[in-house]
Write a structure and sequence with these properties.
Pfam families: Amidase. There is one protein chain. By secondary structure, the protein is α+β, with helices and mostly antiparallel strands. It is 33% helix and 11% strand. The protein has a four-stranded mixed sheet with strand order 1-3-4-2. Strand 3, helix 7 and strand 4 form a beta-alpha-beta unit. The protein is flat.
Length: 329
């Protein structure tokens, strides 16, 4: 088994020995069944991440009928079979008894997504080939050649948007920066899903860049998932207000005081600089009581990049904080 603290960074790594508690459990005859989830790195990555978040768990494949229709409703015409209450085994039984087929199941979800998505914003994109895949699954089942009799054959699934699919779906990690990009191949989990006959219904939303862009971004937020139909009066007013705050705040102060740069510890100034499109540079500044490094940010007006680089370089030369790591033998 892997020991990863719920991070993909440690997936596949080898530990030197069993933990002492594991040794005692084995000596007592206990069976180690598996690993339970924890919050990634025990919150060391960010104290702002919610307690149940982890990269390994958040990228798990989401079975659509368990996620999307908790509050929805729908039945197929025959015998009032309830899709929303069915397990995978129930759905496979319905397939075998002709109460349901994959096309009807996929079509039901495709019709339900527009009804629920404006509220939950759980689906970024629907696979344009989902119904085609459903037809293939039905043909294979009719030919008595299902890829998995009690498994995922003909079952639609959603994937988080950072799981690559080599098809007409986008893989963007919730960001417009990767929209229309082309991935070289299916992710390993996708290859396995296709092999057992699962239908890739679409991409589910996730925190943009899996929260790597900003530790302060709200969980579940992404640019693609929150996209609107355009900029209306409210949005225009907000943009004008941001421009006014920048003009009458940061920019006015810098010009009035004739400042070359503003200095802040860490990267706290990043949101202020980003709103007005101002440059900033962060360099090492020291270590806290626990020997964790922290930085210092120099920000300035537009066009001040050469001056900021000069200031940052001078700070580095004066403090000599940036040093190659050393290890005791």
């Amino acid at each position: 088994m892997n020991t990863t603290i719920e991070s993909y960074a440690l997936l596949g790594s080898e530990v030197a020995r069993d933990a002492s508690v594991v040794e005692r459990l084995r000596n007592a005859g206990a069976v180690i069944l598996g690993k339970a989830s924890v919050f990634e790195w025990y919150h060391f990555r960010s104290s702002g991440i919610r307690d149940d978040w982890s990269a390994r768990r958040i990228q798990a494949v989401l079975l659509l009928f368990l996620v999307l229709l908790l509050s929805g409703s729908g039945t197929t015409p025959s015998n009032a079979f309830s899709i929303k209450e069915a397990s995978v085994r129930d759905l496979q039984t319905a397939f075998r008894t002709n109460q349901l087929n994959s096309r009807k199941l996929v079509k039901f979800y495709i019709e339900e997504i527009p009804k629920l998505n404006p509220v939950v914003r759980g689906v970024i994109e629907v696979n344009p080939d989902a119904l085609y895949q459903a037809n293939l699954a039905d043909k294979e089942r009719k030919a008595k050649a299902p890829r998995s009799l009690y498994g995922l054959h003909g079952i639609p699934v959603l994937l988080e948007d950072n799981i690559a699919t080599k098809d007409r779906l986008n893989t963007t990690a919730g960001s417009f920066a990767l929209l229309k990009s082309i991935v070289p191949r299916d992710a390993g989990v996708v290859t396995k899903l296709r092999k057992v006959g699962a239908i890739i219904l679409g991409k589910a939303s996730l925190s943009e860049w899996a929260n790597f862009r900003s530790i302060n971004a709200p969980d579940g937020w992404s640019a693609r998932a929150e996209a609107t139909n355009g900029i209306g009066d409210t949005e225009k007013a907000a943009l004008l207000n941001l421009a006014k705050l920048t003009r009458d705040g940061f920019e006015k102060t810098m010009r009035y005081k004739q400042l070359d740069a503003v200095v802040t510890p860490g990267s706290a100034a990043a949101p202020v600089l980003a709103i007005g499109g101002f440059p900033g540079i962060t360099v090492p500044a020291g270590f806290d009581d626990n020997r964790v490094p922290f930085g210092i940010t120099f920000g300035g007006l537009k066009g001040s990049e050469p001056k900021l680089i000069e200031i940052a370089y001078g700070f580095e030369q004066a403090t000599q904080i940036r040093k190659p790591p050393s290890f005791k033998p």
